Amino acid sequence: MEIRTIYNRIAVLRKERGLSRKELAEKIGVNFQTVGYLEREEYNPSLDLAFRICECFDLPVEFIFSTKPMKPLSEELLNLKRGV
Amino acid sequence: MNKTKQALRFAVLINYFSIVVILVLFYLVRLLGLNPIFLAFEIIPLITVVLSFRHAFVKTGIWKMTHASYKKLDEREVQVVFKATNISYSLFAIATLVIIYIFILSGLGQIDAVLAVCLLYIAHILPASIIAWNEKV
Predict the structure, then answer these.
(1) Phi, then psi, of B126 in degrees rounded to 5
(2) pTM greater than 0.95
């Protein structure tokens, strides 16, 4: 089975909330290196870890993870404003 | 490839090379009937084994990772260790079989304690070496 890349916005959200990789890692219960792997999209999280990340940022899963490359947040906001 | 990775791979190679040197020296002394005083030179590769082991596996935390309980690892680490253990199991089985055949065919007799210790050591460092070689640590 071919493994697809799961794209995410973890790096943006983490920086936006002023968290270090170590702090985020402690919150979601993984090693800080794993956060780096997740941010670089070199590792696809399990469903459990994905939900833990969503709970940490208090955001829905589809906002953080996608099977297609993520659009920049500014573009998404603009589209939302335009009602696209 | 960055310099840290290169240094790490170099340390792994030095570790294996030192083990080979230990074995070669031991069998040279035994097979050529040299004075056992030559075995004192084993201290040099032994020191390089210790130093390269410390640099490649202890400082990077890979040794701890491959020898920790699964409960203490996160899901990515479990995957990495599983993959490395899987590969090293096959590699070790093949390497041991080849060594046994060499011993039988060359008439060297049975595997002795020095080789057994080296093989046991390799069995322990093989998963860590695979991680050190492939992963970003």
Answers:
(1) -60, -50
(2) no
